[in-house]
Amino acid sequence: MTTPGTPLLAGSGLHKSFGPTRALDGAALSVSAGEVLAIMGSSGSGKSTLLHCLAGIVRPDSGTITYRGADLVGMDDKGRSALRRTEFGFVFQFGQLVPELSCLENVALPLRLTGSKRKQAEAKATEWLARLEVDGLAKRRPGDVSGGQAQRVAVARALVTGPKVVFADEPTGALDSLNGEKVMQMLTEAARETHAAVVLVTHEPRVAAYSDREIVVRDGQTVDRELVA
Amino acid sequence: MSVSHTLLALLEPGPRHGYDLKRAYDEQFGQDRPLAYGQVYSTLSRLLRNGMVEVAGIESGEGPERKRYTITDAGVTDVETWLRTPENPQPYLQNTLYTKVVLALLSGRSASEVLDVQRGEHLKVMRSLTKRKNGGELADQLICDHALFHLEADLRWLELTAARLGELEKAVR
């Protein structure tokens, strides 16, 4: 269980190399329930690798990651993938929707994967599409909607399971300013309402301004201004 | 911003009292910095002297006399010229942040700390503008966006400089 003040998700001393390339070199961060944390940094700084490690997608070479007190690094693949399905939500820059499924089926998919019946899953998906103001697109396929609309569908899909942590990697990277801002506004509002934490990777300061706190990754290391000051 | 041109342009739709003019200005442009009455009346006297406005009438009621001002043809031409003249893009070549970074490097202090602390301050202001924008009407949104884009430009510069501190250190020493 997580009590107030205890980080929901925390990583420390994280190292990860891909061949000769050192992506993470002692990175550390923590995020609390309901907090929107921005991970900033230039391209190649290691910020996406850090997100992938925290989300249990990539296993770090060394270091610790705890989620609600459980050790994520030592957890087997099955455990990690169950966690990703039930506790985490994901929004990426683009391409995460299944092109063969309608927007409604896309949003219902995570619920179907965790055993929900079609009717229930689609009812909940409809609710989330409405919340993101894209309920009119339920029957359309991702290829038939605009980039901004597709990203709202993706946010609905990330939040439909009631995740405790939403990982968003450059969620507005493929959108124009206006659509990007709308997506950020909706993502952070929905996360705050459901008390989910958001780990947001971005190199755009205006997107990071939707966060409560930021850390910067530089050469695989994290700079936390609160620790600097 | 040219207050006199703004007041003049606000007079174009029709005559107004100084007080109405101040209210119109504050509503549209003065959320953060309302105009002082003194400035409204001193600006109007100057516009009057220069033939850009004239007094359309004087009302005397219980309080002091209230003059209604109207824009002249010369005033309309002046507004037109002003609107068509581009503002000077600010090149910001005298940069305190750059100076601080160089001085930190020259004195052996941590320049990246200077940049990190500044980033934090910039983001703090950006967060508050973002909140104001999201709760505000279109006018507020556009005003906040203008400020946000400028702050973002500073932040991009901070990142770029952070990535080139090693090079800069060699260049300035």
Biggest interface reads: A-B, 18 and 22 residues
Shape of chain B: elongated
Structural class of chain A: alpha/beta
Number of strands of chain A: 10
Major beta sheet summary of chain A: 6 strands, mixed
SSE order of chain A: EEEHEEHEHHHEHEHEEH
Strand content of chain A: 15-25%
Multimerization state: heterodimer
Main beta sheet of chain B: 3 strands, antiparallel
Q: In percent, how helical is the residue content of chain B?
A: 55-70%
Which features would summarize this protein structure in a list?
heterodimer; A: 229 residues; alpha/beta; 6-stranded mixed beta sheet; B: 173 residues; mainly alpha; 3-stranded antiparallel beta sheet; 67% helix; elongated
Provide a descriptive summary of the structure in words:
The complex is a heterodimer of chains A (229) and B (173). With 229 residues, chain A is an alpha/beta fold. Helices cover 35% and strands 25% of the residues of chain A. Chain A has 8 helices and 10 strands. The mean pLDDT of chain A is 91. Chain B has 173 residues and is mainly alpha-helical. Chain B has 8 helices and 3 strands; from the N terminus they run αβααββααααα. Chain B has helices at residues 3-11, 18-29, 37-49, 73-84, 96-106, 111-135, 138-163, 165-172, and strands at 16-17, 53-59, 66-71. Chain B has a 3-stranded antiparallel β-sheet with strand order 1-3-2. In chain B, a hairpin with a 6-residue loop joins strand 2 (53-59) and strand 3 (66-71). In chain B, helix 1 (3-11) crosses helix 4 (73-84), helix 5 (96-106) runs antiparallel to helix 6 (111-135) and helix 6 runs antiparallel to helix 7 (138-163). Chain B is elongated, with a radius of gyration of 23 Å. The model of chain B has no long low-confidence stretch (mean pLDDT 91). The A-B interface holds A 42, 185, 203-206, 208-212, 214, 216, 218, 223, 225, 228-229 and B 112-113, 116-117, 119-120, 122-123, 126-127, 129-130, 134, 148-149, 151-152, 155-156, 159, 162-163.
